[in-house]
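Thread: beta-D-glucopyranose complex, take 2
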Amino acid sequence: MTSRINHIIAFLSVILTLTGNSNHKKQSTVVNQSNDIIDQKVDSLMALMTLDEKVGQMNLYNGFWDVTGPVPKEGSEKTKYDHLRKGWVGGMLNVKGVKNVREVQKIAVEETRLGIPLIIGFDVIHGYKTLSPIPLAEAASWDLVAIEKSARNAATEAAASGINWTFAPMVDISRDPRWGRVMEGAGEDPYLGSKIAKARVHGFQGDDLKKDNTIAACAKHFAAYGFAEAGKEYNTVDIGTSTLFNMVLPPFKAASESGVKTFMNSFNDLNGIPVSASKYLQRDILKTKWDFEGFVVSDWASINEIISWGYAKDKKEAAKIASLAGSDMDMEGHVYIQELVNLVKEGVVEEAIINDAVKRILKVKYELGLFDDPYKYCNTKNEMERIGSKAHLEDALDMAKKSIVLLKNETQLLPLKKEGQKIALIGPLAADKNSPLGSWRTASEDHTAISVLEGMQTYRGNALEYSKGIDLIIGKTSFVKEVNINTTNRDGIKEAIEVAKNVDVVVMVLGEHGFQSGEARSRTQLDLPGLQQELLEAVYKVNKNIVLVLNNGRPLAIEWASENIPSIVVGWQLGSQTGNAIAQVLYGDYNPSGKLPMTFPKSIGQIPIYYNHKNTGRAKNVENNVFWSHYIDEENAPLYPFGFGLSYTQFAYKNIIIKSSNFSINDAVNISVEISNIGDYDGKEVAQLYIRDLVGCVIRPIRELKGFELVLLKKGETKTLEFVLTKKELGFYNNNGDFIIEPGDFEVYVGGSSDANLKSEFTLK
Ligand code: BGC
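Output below.
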């Protein structure tokens, strides 16, 4: 059927070209020529489509196997199959595996009138079967090459499983660790977030979408979902233009500029308008200002939720508002398929709106090569060979090691000695093979991570004793279930104390269960859940030589541990290779180099707490009275700032040089700095550059990250680093959303965290 359609289209395209009816200008580059060809093909196909078939392309159904949201009342399996056969479905999500994908694709291609292939979406968030660290952990590596590779491998595995579209990267900036979805993003900073967005888009999409191991990416959730009030999931968002343009939008813009094929809108409202209904975001900014040519998919039933928000009275109105606003595809909402045809027939929605959406969707399908071969992702040989390959597992280990952050190593308990040291491993997460896989691992099997216990056992010569201490959770948990925390059963604490008494060093693996972060996992406490703090303090009473390894999907407020425990390692949820990565870092075979992509607060009352805040009118205690911006019961400083992370060696920065102190706004400002490894180990440092624009027409943050570099330094070695600041780094968005650059004085800071104090200055004339 598809080849028949291709013939008809080819014929129509020739006629269009010969008669000069094509609206497209002749372009010089190959890329634009192929763009034009695709446009012609899409136009020709659309000329054959009925209104029902067009609206069908805007309909995305969940498959029959997994669910990742509330199951809607309508849309029985029978209805979905029926709609598939009529050509009323543009794509499906949560269908995976060559056999399953082939089954639905075959219906679309062979049983519908026009044989238009389906786009097959899936949440490939941090790996597919081979799991990489959760995205927030990967961000802690600041290693764009490794991050891109991680996405590349994920795409390769997903593509081999029949999938051609991922709902990633999630590029939401967030300053609120109470929000469970911070685990899916790149943290609090728009500069780092933009670089990572770009790396992930390239990783998923590769350099050629026609290949059978590249898939379309999706920048989500557009926009401002990470600013949900009080960190509460699905909550309202009220932010000003300055925050929207300078903090929220940059990673989305970076994704768009990197050629991301799709965007997903979100569950929140923005200043009173549900974003699925926001013309301002979707049409005015994304499609007009940024010239985005791909399509926008709604989030799971987010078009229906326009009604729950109280912005539309019924489905018909919701469908009208969302389509006019530029939401092109309805994910498992059943609203477009039920309402849009009538809305067009009644003249409420112009067919041009439908045409625009369908054109965008079909274009992506063409770009993916689905019209040339709709089964291109359905290759059982690839499925056998590419999923869970040895090479992917090795890369996942590399990524996991790079993601680990050393927060404290006061008495140099780390690295552990490989010989002659008695070590005990204690904690409910120490032998856990499930939790380290983190949230969003819908394609991997549960309980498949290497546990910390297994990882440490591979180091021979150590007498490794183990005690779980307590359970963290009661019963089983999963992506769709609440986590039930153990708060009463202390039975194992005594045994843990006995084990701890007789060893030189105790490694304690504590933190959050993997399903305590992710979607719908907002928390009001950021402590060690359940009885873990009690266990930690009980062990500390008998042995103070503790290395605390955190498992966490977000920053935690661990003030007691930070004051008392000599060594602390952030071990996140590191995916399939968790235990191997942690063991290699603990035993010193890998020198940690990760840096926090999000501030760790001292207490929850400080949230939102982030490094790039504004100064306020009373930022300092000048007169020694109470009238300044502070708390009376807590410091302003965080527990650990953005960008912070130690190494087993030490680095020193000096000689920051800016050749001139005056520049014009068109000049590039070159900054050089020397960095030396003054410790006892070879090591890697993430050198960071921050600026402060002292006076602006919109108040500027006290610091903004504007450059970073990963530097490998042998023990005793010194290197000179060069940073360049251009308009792009020195400008910002004013309150009209225009990017501007203003003359004035700037401070520059370089160092190993956002607290860096090596400083220089320059002036823009
Ligand atoms: C999430 C999206 C996800 C979608 C499909 C929604 O609940 O917000 O991020 O892509 O489900 O699984």
